[in-house]
Each structure stands twice: as structure tokens, then as C-alpha cells.
Amino acid sequence: MKTVAAAFVSFCLLVALPGAACAAAADAKGKAASTRKQKSVVVRKPAVSVPAVPTFGQAAGLHEVDDPLALKSSVAYVMDQNTNEVLFSKNPQAVLPIASITKLMTALVVVEAGLPLDEKLTVTADDIDTEKNTGSRLAVGTTLTRGDMLHLALMASENRAAHALGRNYPGGLSAFVAAMNAKAESLGMADTHYVEPTGLSSRNQSSAKDLAALVDVTSQVPLLRDLSTSREARVALGKRLVQFRSTNGLLSNPLWDIGLQKTGFINEAGKCLVMQARMAGRQLIMVFLDSSGKASRIADAERMRKWLSATLSGDAGSPAAKL
């Protein structure tokens, strides 16, 4: 009887064990799956939107001033170069950072100093931007002629090229900046002040009226006209030929006849643009500062061109739009 009872107990255990094993395995699998699910959960912090830093013009409320063309630029100024007649004026006295428009004065000082354009200049660590930490295609050690540096500074707005031009001025960078400010004073640019030759510093500041005077003078220098309106250039950087292009797309637009131009941008200044252009038989100087939006300065220039073409063709003596 004991033998039969033992056999019966063994049989029951054999039947029960697989179920128990399966249950244990399932339980273990469930725990593992639960563990894996817990590990895959990622707790993300809610996105925090960082407000854009306003430009100097925005901070001063200049964008709140309306104009008949609904321009995105807080400052706009158009003047007949030959008669000095002001055709359009919006916040002309505002003194704002001018970004790379600075390079027009840099170029003017270099040319008027009579420095040899074929002299070789080398980019050094001193030319690296420590103001905005921008990059450059001109590596430290790059050697170009002063003429090539001038070309890249005006056409492609190359900051290291502009800085190298100032650094290689007789007396060095401090003497160059002093010459920039002296030239501005001689031109009656009372609202203008420079601290360096690239425009990366927001302390390089001017007004639309002052910049019109600068464009007037620089547009009378054939070399500066040619270099600033060049659409592209291949420059030998070591063993490589590198293509540089203009920062102003209007140069490729057949509706425009541009004699001199320069663009500019830093966060504090917004998008900037100055030009000398022939329109409706007149030589005009245009200044757009502190434009908001990626392509807004170009759109503002196009809006101005259409308005001026209609105004000057319909009635050349029509009153200027002044704000």
C-alpha cells in the first residue's frame, strides 16, 4: 500500500510541476518585461522657449513707426545722389549698429592710404573672430594679396579679410580704427563711430544720413564699385581654388542697375543693406537698417524700387515720403 501511495504522490507531482514551472517562467518573463518597460520610459522636460534678443531698433521701438510701404526695416532712406533730394525717409536720425556696412569705410581707408594692392598679407590668429565666434573660409596661415582681401571683404563680407586689412595698416589696428573715425568726421558723419574694421561689434554705429554720405563717397571710387558689385570670384587658397559669392542677390536681378552695394548682419543690427543704383534716369542712394526677417531687406528694396519707379516716372517732382 505504501508503494502504491508513493507512486500516486509521484504521479501527482509530475502532473503539477510543469504547470508550476510554466507559471514561474511566465511570472519571470512578466517581471523582465516590466523591468524593460520601466527602463524604456524617458521623462522629458517641457521645452522652454528662449525669447529672441531684440535688435537695438526693436528695443527702441523704431519698428512701431508706420510707413506708406510697410517696410520691415525700421530705418530707410533714399536720396538723389546728384541733387541731395530726399525721396524717402524713415527714422533717418536713429543711431544703430551697422554690422558689415562697416566694411565700406574699411575699404575706403585702405584705398585712400595708397597701400600696394599686390602686397601679400597673411591671416593670423589675431584675425579670428572672438566677438561673435563666427567661422571663416580663410584659415590661419592663408596668404592673399591686399587686393584679394579687399575683394573678399566687400563682395563676400569676409571678416578675417577685413580684419587683416586693418591689422596691416601702418601703425597697426589702433591706427586703422583712428583713421576710420577721422574719415567719418571729415565727411560730416557726426552720428558715426567705429571700434573695429569688420562690423562684428555692435559698437560700430551710424545713422542712415551718415551712411548715405559714406555711400556717396565710396561709389565714386571705381575700384570699390567694381569689387562691391562683383557677383563671384575664384580665389586660390593654397592649392585649392575656392569659389566666393556676393551676399547680395539683387546683383543678379536684371531689373536693378547697382553701382555699389554692401550688406550686413549681426543680431543687434538686424539685416542691413546700402546701395547706389540708377533708377528712372537718376542716381539714387538707398539705406535699409534693422530689417527683421531672413529676406526682408531684399523685399524692402524691391518694394522701394517699384514705388520709386512709379513715383519718378509719373512725377519726378512729387513730394518725398517722410516719417
List the helices and strands and how they pair.
Elements: H1 2-40, H2 56-59, E1 73-80, E2 86-90, E3 96-97, H3 102-112, E4 120-122, E5 143-145, H4 146-155, H5 159-167, H6 172-186, E6 205-206, H7 208-218, H8 222-228, E7 232-237, E8 240-245, E9 258-266, E10 270-279, E11 282-291, H9 296-314, E12 321-322
Task: Give a verbal description of the structure.
With 323 residues, this protein is α+β, with helices and mostly antiparallel strands. 39% of the residues lie in helices and 20% in strands. The protein has helices at residues 2-40, 56-59, 102-112, 146-155, 159-167, 172-186, 208-218, 222-228, 296-314, and strands spanning 73-80, 86-90, 96-97, 120-122, 143-145, 205-206, 232-237, 240-245, 258-266, 270-279, 282-291, 321-322. The strands form 4 sheets. It has a 6-stranded mixed beta sheet with strand order 9-10-11-1-2-12, sandwiched between helices. It has a two-stranded antiparallel sheet with strand order 3-6. Mean pLDDT is 87; it is low at 1-26, 28-43 and 316-320.
List keywords for this structure.
single chain; 323 residues; alpha+beta; six-stranded mixed beta sheet; 9 helices; globular; disordered N terminus
Could you give a quick summary of the protein structure above?
With 323 residues, the protein is an alpha+beta fold. It is built from nine helices and twelve strands.
Instruction: Tell me the strand percentage band.
Output: 15-25%
Shape: globular
Please mark out the parts with pLDDT under 50 across 5 or more consecutive residues, or reply none: 1-26, 28-43, 316-320
- SSE order: HHEEEHEEHHHEHHEEEEEHE
State the total count of DSSP E strands.
12
* Average pLDDT for all residues: 87
Radius of gyration: 33 Å
How many helical stretches?
Answer: 9
Helix fraction, binned, reads 25-40%
Give the biggest sheet.
6 strands, mixed
How many angstroms separate the termini?
Answer: 118 Å
SS class: alpha+beta
